[in-house]
Amino acid sequence: PYILEVYMHNLTISISAIDTWRITNSYHLSIMTTIVLVRKNNEVVVAGDGQVSMGNTVVKSTASKIRRIEKRDVVAGFAGSTADALTLFERLEAKIEKHAGNLSRAAVELAKDWRTDKYLRRLEALMAIGDKEHSYIISGTGDVLEPEGDVIGIGSGGNYALAAGKVLMETDMSAEEVAKKAIKVASEICVFTNDNIKVLKI
Prior knowledge:
Blueprint: H1 20-24, E1 34-40, E2 43-48, E3 52-54, E4 57-60, E5 66-69, E6 74-80, H2 82-98, H3 103-116, E7 125-130, E8 135-139, E9 144-145, E10 151-155, H4 158-168, H5 175-187, E11 198-201
Antiparallel strand pairs: 1-2, 1-10, 2-11, 3-4, 5-6, 6-7, 7-8, 8-9
Helix pairs in contact: 2-3, 4-5
């Protein structure tokens, strides 16, 4: 039911619609969290919950799953193994520096390496990244997706946060308020998500 239109002019990828559920649930480790990225009124906010689960057991409730590249004004959120996510974030940071802050090109290059590199392709995570101009979902299957709209949701509660965020975007709430409320809604539905919310914005 979804039609995917990909344009790779100057290594920039856009899509008309995406099946977020398929991408998110292709990684068994990636589903145990909720990350949301919101763009509104020239603000970009990434928010994540703090729960870390092993199977059906909560092992930590105050984890931080979001990061910022200060000098490039890039924020990112991760769903999946912590070690894998941090490794990928370091790679992303290196790619952004290599391409002089061009997030689109860095995202494509990271996805290509993630897909083809013998070591990287073993890493299990999803990334939601954004700067002042673009937002992307990057997966280990080689997908670099720029969703329509100004809200991204990934992880087990991603679809709940995405739905809530889209509705809240029509209110007078700020980007940060939308992101926090979206995670809060997801935490009330998804057992792998809590309401200990961390936020970064640019």
